[in-house]
Description:
There is one protein chain. The chain starts with a strand and ends with a helix. It has a seven-stranded mixed beta sheet, sandwiched between helices. A three-stranded antiparallel beta sheet has the order 9-10-12. A two-stranded parallel ribbon has the order 1-11. Strand 5, helix 6 and strand 6 (174-178) form a beta-alpha-beta unit. The longest helix is centred in the N-terminal third of the chain and has 20 residues, at 39-58. It has helices at residues 17-27, 39-58, 72-88, 103-114, 132-138, 161-171, 231-234, 242-257, 259-278, 306-315, 335-339, 344-348, 361-380, 383-392; strands at residues 5-6, 66-69, 94-98, 118-122, 143-147, 174-178, 197-201, 212-216, 283-285, 296-301, 318-319, 350-354. It has 393 residues and is α/β, with parallel strands linked by helices. The chain is globular. The structure holds pyridoxal-5'-phosphate.
Amino acid sequence: MKRFVYADNAATTKISEPVLQAMLPYLREEYGNASSIYALGRRAGQAIKDARETVAKAFNAQPDEIFFTSGGSEADNWAIKGVAHAMAQKGKKHLITTVFEHHAVLHTCQALEKEGFEVTYLPVDPMGLVHVDQVAQAIRPDTALVSIMYANNEIGTIQPISQIGALCREMGVLFHTDAVQAVGNVDIDVKEQNIDLLSMSAHKIHGPKGTGVLYCRRGLRFPNLIDGGGQERGRRAGTENVAGIVGLAKAVELACSDVARHTAHLVPLRDQLIAGILQIPRTRLNGDPIQRLAGNANLSIEGVEGESLLLMLDLAGVCASSGSACTSGSLDPSHVLLAIGLTHEVAHGSLRLSLSDETTQEDVDYILQVLPGIVERLRAMSPLWEKICQEAN
Ligand SMILES: *Cc1c(COP(=O)(O)O)cnc(C)c1O
């Protein structure tokens, strides 16, 4: 029987019921502007204050180190552009990142290169891991910032963030991490892990879209990205998205309080999915099998074209992704899959299934029931598959 299976939680997640319930009053009767002096405004202000404390606690930060933004992309832009511009004043115009960051980081770095900054893009190994000694070797006296993502959105690899943080602190270089995919999957402690700046987003953890956080260690000063009113202690202008902020805090609280249960639920489902797909001939797992997000399965299936696979899965009721959602619509293969050494052909036939707490055993069974037949049908029509078979003989 046909089911609907949402397996694209790395692209976005369904808002959870407790998050929605926490938000609703601020979309209805509690509509005050948090800057207003009367009680209606003060209640909105109090809700933001409470949200800031909740988020700070989840990452072992102080409330005054938490800044609400319009999402992960804004937090990444602000951290990297802000620090780059501040450090340029001190003659430091070199940045270090990796080749397989999210575009919010990569395109920001490219924009800075056009302004005259120099960027080192570190390679990742075939499993998608960054090596700490390579970070060490890349640091120079004029390095302003190291920005390395906590967990990759496409292949799910989790980086050795504590070691990179310790290294950067020792070398006196600021360290930013895009933790959008990591929140709720790993325990994050910005103090212990020596993280100076951290980006996160609500809609990847069952919160609302259009809201995120930049954690910025106390005492770090850099230019604003958005100028205007005095919101966020003068550092990020714009009337606060009160309902969004309240929803984000609820989502963070729920995601971070249950990391162990989340992992225990998802790892067996993920591993069944991976093992089941690997039963299909000429498939491979992308990313590290162990240092991996609990809900991420990314596989290459030779002789199929990713976009066709997604359309066929959609007809069967399964939402999935091939590479990252941001690059679909263009035929360039994913920069992440190329970074781990896949050929264009193999990268094109990749499938990302990303699970959430709502994913069930029946969902996994259903995917494994429909996928082999779809692959077989696509391969039967594929000149590429014919070529692969001839070469194998
Ligand atoms: C989704 C995502 C972002 C962007 O966050 P938005 O809130 O959608 O702007 C940035 N980095 C990573 C790793 C992501 O997965």
